[in-house]
Structures are given as C-alpha cells and as structure tokens.
Amino acid sequence: MAYPLLVVTAVTAEAEAVRAGADPRQVVVEAVGVGPAAAAAGTARLLAVRRYRAVISAGIAGGFQGRAPVGATVVGARSIAADLGAETPDGFLAVEELGFGRSVLPADAGLVKALAAALPAAIVGDVLTLATVTGTAGTAERLAARFPEAVAEAMEGFGVATAAGEVPFAELRTISNPIGPRDRAAWRLREAFAALSTASAVLWTACG
Questions:
Q1: What span, in angstroms and rounded, lies between the C-alpha atoms of 191 and 33?
Q2: Per-residue b or e along 47-58, where b marks 16 or more CB atoms closer than 10 Å to that residue's CB
Q3: Is the dihedral of CA 113, 202, 5, 101 positive or negative?
Q4: Which of 82, 91, 161, 185 is the most exposed place for a label (fewest CB within 10 A)?
Q5: In this structure, what CATH number is given to the domain that contains residue 181?
Q6: Residue 63's closest CA among 120, 146, 125, 114?
Q7: Are 3 and 53 in contact (CB under 8 A)?
Q8: How many Cβ atoms sit within 10 Å of the Cβ of residue 184?
C-alpha cells in the first residue's frame, strides 16, 4: 500500500497554494495554525489518526538577504528553533548549551536530496523557526551571524519536525519578503504563493 504524503501549513492560504499544485490523490494538505506549538500539536494529531509516508512543513517565509532572495524556493536541510534557550549578558545560549534538549532537527537526507533534484533552482540551507518574527535589522544581523547556514525563517518547521518523530520530515518554503524591518509594501505574497504552488507540483514525484 502506498501511504500518502502529509503537507502541513500554518494558514489556509498556504494550504490552498499547496493544493493548487499537489496531486490530491496522493498528497494530504492541512493547515494547523501559526507558531511552533500549534504546528507540533496539529501535526501530532494528524499523524495519530492516519499513517503517512512522510511529512512536509510548507509555506512562505522570510529570506536572509544575500542568501535567499524574494521569490526563491528553499529546501530546509535543518529546522532550528533559533529562540529556544536563554539570554545572558554574554549573548544567547541555545538549549543544548543549557543541557535541556535539542534546538536543531535535521530533515530526512533522502527527502532533501529528492526535493533538491526535483527543484534544481531551489536553495538548500537551514530554516530557522521563531515564535516572534524578526522585525529589526539588528536582530536579522545577529541571527545571520549565529546561523551562517540559515537561508530563511518561519514559525512552524521545528514544531512539525518534533511531532514527526520517526516519520521522514522535510521543510519547503518560498520567500515572500527579506528578513528585517517589516515593510509590508515590499512583501510579494502573490508571487510567493504562486511559487509554492509550482514547487508543490513535484512533491509526490520527489517524496512518493
């Protein structure tokens, strides 16, 4: 039996964009809410009631300038909970440094390779998960320095990866805006949703 692929998004608009490109006979798409907690809870609920061959966290994202321009498609090699840790006078300590757990979850290597092959223009790199979207140049610069392999930030990937457990996981994002000061006039949501639909057309071929 060929189990379907599960694609989890944050909001309905992202789910609709994925459905516009994905094969509905083979790909199940669900919007589970914004943020890592909602993403983890929603994904766990879906995985508890049905078996899937893999789970993809998909949607739009902000891109680090010089790494992932607006309009780009990103395949996440790792999902990183960038704000899971503690502030100190000497800087941020990740949860690993505190001895409390993990803030970095690698995507399934086979899925990353297959998605990159099916989407040759895609940028492969780390995707940060944050509960608070970056809104200043200073924060963007600090994150870029802390995570030199990061190409994008979103709000759900680490939560989906946590819930996925032993189910193969990957993250797929399209870039709607640069990370930094919130300039809504510079966002390209329509283009990002269109790119997400285009990228979703290869999901079953790559991951099925």
A1: 22
A2: beeeebbbbbbb
A3: positive
A4: 185
A5: 3.40.50.1580
A6: 125
A7: yes
A8: 7
Q: Please tell me the pTM assigned to this model.
A: 0.94
Q: Which of 118, 75, 123 is nearest to 207 (CA)?
A: 118
Q: How many domains does the chain have?
A: 1
Q: Which two tokens stand for residue 97?
A: 């440094």
Query: CA-CA distance, 110 to 90, in Å (whole number)?
Result: 38
Q: Tell me the residue range of the domain where 67 lies.
A: 5-207
177-194 pLDDT, tens digit per residue, is 999 998 887 789 999 999
Per the CB < 8 A criterion, the answer to whether 31 and 57 are in contact is no
Out of 2-11, 27-36, 88-97, 110-119, pick the least confident: 88-97
What's the CA gap between 58 and 101, in Å, rounded?
Answer: 25
Instruction: Flag whether pLDDT at 36 surpasses 70.
Output: yes
Cα–Cα–Cα angle for 66, 10, 139, nearest 5°? 35
Phi, psi angles (nearest 5°) of residue 83? -110, 20
Helix axes 12-21, 189-200, angle to 10 degrees: 40
Question: Which H or E run contains 80?
Answer: strand 73-81
CB half-sphere exposure, 58, CA atoms < 13 A? 34
